[in-house]
């Protein structure tokens, strides 16, 4: 049984204001909406992730991807990976979340967002980004690379849980 999820107003677009408080509130609302949408769907049985260590179809050890944005959306996951991916909450320290115009109409239409979150390294452990760790096979990780636009690059990080994972950051 899962704990109840806190409800925030559903938002699919970032407020037009540039104030830091609005950005934090919008990010929290988007994150909660992403989590709520992901929790309503389950992956098909043949591809179900039984734990974040192994994919049950025999493909071997999973690649971990820390997602803090649109790759948490069920519709984006279905289009990118062909399934909805289970995940676990985690935190990345030393990074700050910002918003950028993604500049790709297909990605914007799929996600429903004109602007997407992006990470910038600060090195300050007080800066923290909340997200979910997704267990992907090698083909799905390649598909995630294809989904992300040129503004992002994939790098390896250590999360608050101690888990090593890939994450997309500012290029």
Along the chain, the helix and strand elements come as HEEEHEEHEEHEE
Overall strand count: 9
Largest sheet: 5 strands, mixed
Overall morphology: globular
Distance between the termini: 40 Å
Specify the helix fraction band.
25-40%
Ranges where pLDDT stays below 50 over 5 or more residues in a row are 1-31, 33-58
Radius of gyration: 15 Å
Class by SSE composition: alpha+beta
Strand content: 25-35%
Strand order of the largest sheet: 4-7-3-9-8
How many H/I helices? 4
pLDDT averaged residue by residue:
74
Could you characterize what this model shows?
By secondary structure, the chain is α+β, with helices and mostly antiparallel strands. Helix content is 26%, strand content 31%. It contains four helices and nine strands; from the N terminus they run αβββαββαββαββ. It has helices at 20-39, 74-81, 105-111, 138-147; strands spanning 54-55, 60-61, 63-67, 87-93, 95-101, 115-121, 128-136, 152-158, 164-170. The chain has a five-stranded mixed β-sheet with strand order 4-7-3-9-8. The chain has a two-stranded antiparallel sheet with strand order 1-2. A two-stranded antiparallel sheet has the order 5-6. Strand 8 and strand 9 (164-170) form a beta hairpin. It is globular.
